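explain this.
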Amino acid sequence: MAAPHGEFPPGHGPAAKVSVSLRTGNIRAVKERVGSRGFSAYVDAAVERQIERDLLEEALLANEKQAGVIPREIKDEAAALFREVRSAPELQGDSEWHVREAD
């Protein structure tokens, strides 16, 4: 018998079929990037990244509740650093999709 979905942390466990509805433009964009065979892995990785972002946001909110709001200057400095790293020449043009091995 298959294990319930809740027994595995995000990013782990066997693959399972589910039915989802996506906007047509998003479907086209994913297929253009990875083809039909890489579609599920791409969507799975996107879901995992969103879960990570949600958890990070929850942790940041909990931290602000405990330690207080992060000063604007520090937020601005972090945003500038992020933009600098994101625009680094060595990262430009790297559109190769890396599919993680399934568990």
User: Anything to note?
Assistant: The CA atoms of residues 3 and 13 lie 9 Å apart. The two ends are 18 Å apart (CA to CA). The chain is about 55% helix and 0% strand. Helices lie at 24-34, 39-67, 72-86.
